[in-house]
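hey so u asked for the seq, here:
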Amino acid sequence: MNALSNLLMITDRNVSLSVDEAIRVSGLRVGYGGAPVVDDVSIGVNRGERLAVIGANGAGKSTLLKGMLGLIRPETGSATFLDRPFWAVRQHLAFVAQADETDWDFPSRVRDLVAMGRGVHLGLTGRLGAEDWRAVGAALERLNIADLAARPLSELSGGQRRRVLLARALAQDPQIMLLDEPFQAIDAATREALITVLDDFQAEGKTALIVHHNLGEVRSLFDRVALLDGTVTALDTPDAVLASDAFERAFGISAR
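ran it, structure tokens below
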């Protein structure tokens, strides 16, 4: 990729969507100018896998995601997706931040926010076509919020906000999703909708890395778990991580 492609954030059209390892984090160190928040983090996520990142408050979970995407520039290390840096595969990767990081008072409507997920597919005109609007409509339907399409963002409940953010990600039609605490403070209907979407996403052979806080759900929702405590202290099946000494040190409890 040349410098112009990098500047315009053009997806590398030669990227393979069938590589065995969808995500590779190698020796990542990220901070905010002082001591690193996460240091020497290395994680591999297989294609079609759903991996949880867990850890106590302040363990660096959100910082890790932002460092992987270059939203915070890593001090050392790297992260690749489908064997490419993020900018080269951004069309294939969607990031869903925590809901409270979005300006919900912005004078816009639900369909407009969801349509932003199509931005990586647009040409130089920046105009959405019929295919883009079909993708937006399909994403709204999958999250059961088609009836909210014309609603102002400021009128949404917490659970509705979560669904809208995930709908925006789905409208992009990504191969990989990074989600930061998507299950936090949601109602039962939203939880059911999220799980259905994630199950369908995985059934399509796609990959999700999810920061998750509810330890009681880890066994039922994830294939593997990465325990973060400034660095990765355990990376294994849910049963193995929850039974580890590292888990007991991180949370002060035993889940054996």
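Residues 1-8 have pLDDT under 50 and may be disordered. The longest helix spans residues 188-203.
lmk if thats what u needed
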